[in-house]
């Protein structure tokens, strides 16, 4: 997976988030403050612009630029969290021009660690971690089993989507939704839902560039 | 959704343009979205920076001026501002004595202010933060993101701001800011939801006979939904929640705050009930504010914030303040 | 209807109880429903009394204090007060130099204030009235009750009040009050109706895409219904109506006033458009106010009031004022 | 018609206004400020109380007390207008202990003159004058024709009701409704409607006391 793959990933995220903007905002309206869709739409729009303005040379610098842009432009909880996730991935990838599935797996692992270090959420807290963590595990397993890249990314997307759906019955213990106590149960976590979009875009980027 | 706006995407910038036009005492950096005192940093004075999502006006921009903040960073509606803004603001108010960040306890605000403080530290500007978390509707436990910062933010900004004007050190200003927060408690009630421009529809639905108890300031539903009742009863629920957490006694500073869409007349009706409740408990509101100070767009509802005063805090509360939103003293 | 009240019949009394509790600088006569300065009449100073229906808070009670009114008479919601109240208030503020009645031009207010003035005259208290009629949405002709008094009331109360503090004569204070009124124009817009407690339902109905142009301050519909539009366009309609009546030029005092339910953020957005419009016309808002000052309960909407300033009026506007609703100067 | 007749009249008005309070307020909501019903209900409630507290001795003093109470307690446009109307009637009746139909007619004439002097409204301006003026004419005619009191009062009530209904198509030229310009047409004037109630109560008072 070369630089163009990662640029394509960012573009696919921007497209998906724009399409799902209102849906994400409505999820956030139910248990948060009704801004998650506009936050991410604004953020990934800026990422797309930043990548067009200064085309990156490596996969790592693509993700570093994306992460810094999100931190600089989004605000809220999700800006620093997604920003950290991409920056940690970028750092993990270093200068490699072509990323192997194993390297991607390590990078996603670093993303999860970064998110958890910043936000202190564990699985079951009803946050983006609930979508990210199973996706990380799915990729690690795919690497171990040596499955084809397409299938590996499909497994990542499926695991993230499943993780997001599984947040519905949970009671939130982190972020704004935690203020609602037991009333947060019965709603999908907006950040988990957007994480599923972000990770599904990985597979779409694969279809597009391979 | 029917709002007095030009477009959903330009609300913050357009409002900042209006603030800049209306208040010659302020300087608005439209690119970075920062509201500064026009007079610039005063050498030797601790700078005070606060900020948060927009939609809470006059908080925070309306509290920039002599005796309160040096700069405010408004984010998008209900979205915390970004570190870049806070870094610019921090550097812009640094008069050599360091800068205090007043941060309401929300995950996003905390993350972004932390990042900014770290980067400012790297650049040699000493930053200390005071976290405001006064909302008793949320339990501060492992199972929540902690108590929200609401009405007490105004108290912290006013009192820490007054102390900073005297030339006090960053450590002292921060200590007093924390003391104000520790002595303050809030509880909020919504009669209606609000409508975030970008969402285009109300954040929740309530019937004519329902209210939300224990709301925050971002249009979120409360801890529980209850039947609408007389002002007297609703105020009692709010005051009991505060009193259960920190028994009310002695001299208090009391804010009865409108959420943006509540007529002032109703806020005075609520204040009368607050005063009656305090009398029952043997406490007295020796200082008070009634009005729209920490709002949630067009929400109808109110919050009560109490702060148990000391002599020093009372003196600092009374000290001169000259901002668009609060003004008194000489 | 969902309001923060105890009962429909007690709203005015309950709000007065809250005002009394919140403001030690005021003395509230609950029996007669009058808000006085706690300090009482100052010998030799012209007394200023205003009043009108409740539901416009902070007008008028919030403008009682140094540099503005000496007493305010709140009637029932949107109902002018009664002569008895005004007589009590007039006698209570009489410091030997006579009393000015500031009356918004509504049939009921005019009738009741006239009766009161006549009876006060009989009892030897000289009373002069200033009628405020600034609303350009109404034509002042044989076919109407004349232009309504709206936002300019605040200007008249502030400026006449400042002059009275200097010891000026009743005739001079009245003349200046009338001058302010003559130099002022207003236009109001509603995005939503309001709900009078006793009526229990909104005063009119508007769809999501309609607004009312040329409203007053009593929840009445406007002269015309129009399609909702950008703030820029709505402000232009209001400003054109004012400018057509009295071309805008030179130094202005400008009020962008919320009707009670409009977030401050939106009022600043409107103010930005007002400032841009004035620039086009070559006029300047050298003084301004943005906020909820002359409200209609929970109505969403705004009004713009302009007053063409002279040097003297500017000086009087800047003079010290200390009331719950307006405070500045030293 | 003795003092008890006039006291009964005030009681009948209070009852009718209380029953029609919301209706009058809704009429006022359409073209005014939604307070006419509560204004009059408050006012005639006070009149009832005042009459109970200090029972008047003559028809004239009954109406003077009612008028003063309305002026003191109602506010708005209708308080001074109704107050003036009753006070002028009271003055016109003087000390007579038993009022003839001709004396009542003269008193109603004085009421109309008082209302018009204060409010400067003429017929067709869409105000209470549009109900009061035809009622005054109807009573004068009945007196001239020498009809029975019951029938005379029925004619008064009918004329006032007809006058009130006839305000519907008019454009208001006085009071708050005038602010609406042509939009005031199509709604019954609240003050004319309440005047019809007040004058219909005259007939009911007759039924009760005769
Ligand atoms: N401490 C945390 N750790 C991980 N994710 C979090 C945490 N707090 C919030 N989130 C995620 O952020 C999402 C909300 O993002 P967003 O609405 O953009 O920010 P905000 O809550 O500041 O309005 C939540 O749905 C949740 O998934
Ligand atoms: N100038 C006037 N002359 C006669 N009647 C009037 C005049 N102005 C108003 N009215 C009457 O008063 C009625 C309104 O009374 P009310 O609603 O109690 O007072 P307000 O208009 O002050 O709210 C109108 O419907 C009209 O009949
Ligand atoms: Mg959110
Ligand atoms: Mg947010
Ligand atoms: Mg009225
Ligand atoms: Mg009325």
TrEMBL record, chains A, D:
GO biological process, one term: glycerol catabolic process
GO molecular function (one): glycerone kinase activity
Keyword Kinase recorded: yes
Domain DhaL: 4-204
Protein name, entry field: Dihydroxyacetone kinase subunit L
The keyword Transferase appears for this protein: yes
Keywords, ordered alphabetically: Kinase, Transferase
SMART domains: Dak2
Domain of life: Bacteria
InterPro entries per the UniProt record, alphabetical: DhaK_L_YcgS, DhaL_dom, DhaL_dom_sf, Dihydroxyacetone_Kinase
Gene3D superfamilies noted in UniProt: 1.25.40.340
Any GO CC annotation of this UniProt entry: cytosol
TrEMBL record, chains B, C:
GO BP annotations listed: glycerol catabolic process
Keywords: Kinase, Transferase
GO cellular component annotations of the record: cytosol
Ranges for domain DhaK: 7-328
GO molecular function: glycerone kinase activity
Secretion signal, residue range per the UniProt entry: none
InterPro entries, A to Z: DhaK_1, DhaK_dom, Dihydroxyacetone_Kinase
Keyword Transferase on entry: yes
Record has DNA-binding as a keyword: no
UniProt xrefs under NCBIfam families: dhaK1 (TIGR02363)
Entry protein name: Dihydroxyacetone kinase subunit DhaK
Organism: Acrocarpospora macrocephala
Native organism taxonomy: Bacteria, Bacillati, Actinomycetota, Actinomycetes, Streptosporangiales
């Amino acid at each position: 997976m070369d630089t163009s793959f990662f640029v394509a990933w960012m573009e696919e995220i921007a497209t998906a988030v724009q399409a799902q903007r209102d849906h994400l905002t409505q999820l956030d309206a139910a248990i948060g403050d009704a801004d998650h869709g506009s936050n991410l739409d604004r953020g990934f729009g800026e990422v797309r612009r930043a990548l067009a303005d200064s085309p990156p040379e490596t996969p790592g610098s693509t993700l570093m630029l994306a992460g810094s842009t999100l931190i600089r432009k989004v605000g809220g909880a999700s800006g620093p969290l997604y920003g950290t996730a991409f920056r940690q991935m970028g750092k993990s990838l270093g200068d490699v021009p072509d990323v192997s599935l194993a390297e991607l797996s390590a990078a996603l692992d670093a993303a999860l660690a970064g998110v958890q270090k910043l936000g202190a959420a564990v699985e079951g807290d009803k946050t983006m971690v609930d979508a990210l963590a199973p996706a990380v595990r799915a990729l690690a397993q795919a690497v171990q089993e040596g499955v084809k890249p397409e299938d590996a990314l499909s497994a990542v997307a499926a695991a993230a989507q499943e993780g997001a759906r599984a947040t519905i019955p949970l009671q939130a213990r982190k972020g704004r939704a935690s203020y609602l106590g037991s009333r947060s149960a019965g709603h999908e976590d907006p950040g988990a839902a957007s994480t599923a979009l972000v990770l599904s875009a990985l597979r779409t980027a694969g279809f597009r560039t391979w | 959704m029917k709002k007095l706006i030009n477009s959903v995407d330009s609300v913050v910038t357009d409002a900042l343009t209006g603030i800049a036009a209306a208040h010659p005492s302020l300087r608005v950096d439209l690119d970075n979205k920062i509201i500064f005192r026009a007079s610039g940093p005063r050498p030797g004075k601790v700078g005070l920076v606060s900020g948060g999502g927009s939609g809470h006006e006059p908080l925070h921009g309306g509290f920039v001026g002599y005796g309160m903040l040096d700069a405010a960073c408004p984010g998008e509606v209900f979205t915390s501002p970004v570190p870049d803004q806070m870094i610019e603001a921090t550097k812009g108010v640094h008069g050599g004595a360091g800068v205090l960040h007043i941060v309401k306890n929300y995950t996003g605000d905390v993350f972004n202010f932390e990042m900014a403080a770290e980067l400012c530290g790297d650049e040699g500007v000493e930053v200390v933060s005071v976290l405001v978390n006064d909302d008793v509707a949320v339990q501060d436990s492992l199972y929540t993101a902690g108590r929200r910062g609401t009405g007490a933010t105004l108290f912290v900004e006013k009192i820490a701001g007054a102390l900073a004007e005297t030339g006090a050190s960053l450590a002292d200003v921060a200590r007093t800011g924390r003391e104000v927060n520790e002595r303050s408690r809030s509880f909020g009630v919504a009669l209606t939801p609000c409508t975030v421009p970008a969402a285009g529809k109300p954040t929740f639905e309530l019937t004519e006979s329902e209210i939300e108890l224990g709301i925050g300031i971002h249009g979120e539903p409360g801890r529980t939904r209850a039947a609408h009742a007389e002002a007297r009863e609703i105020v009692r629920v709010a005051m009991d929640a505060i009193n259960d957490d920190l028994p009310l006694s002695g001299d208090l500073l009391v804010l009865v705050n409108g959420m943006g869409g509540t007529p002032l007349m109703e806020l005075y009706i609520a204040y009368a009930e607050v005063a009656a409740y305090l009398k029952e408990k043997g406490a007295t509101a020796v200082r008070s504010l009634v009005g729209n100070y920490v709002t949630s767009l067009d929400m109808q509802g109110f919050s009560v914030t109490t702060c148990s005063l000391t002599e020093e805090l009372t003196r600092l509360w009374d000290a001169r303040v000259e901002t668009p939103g609060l003004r008194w003293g000489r």
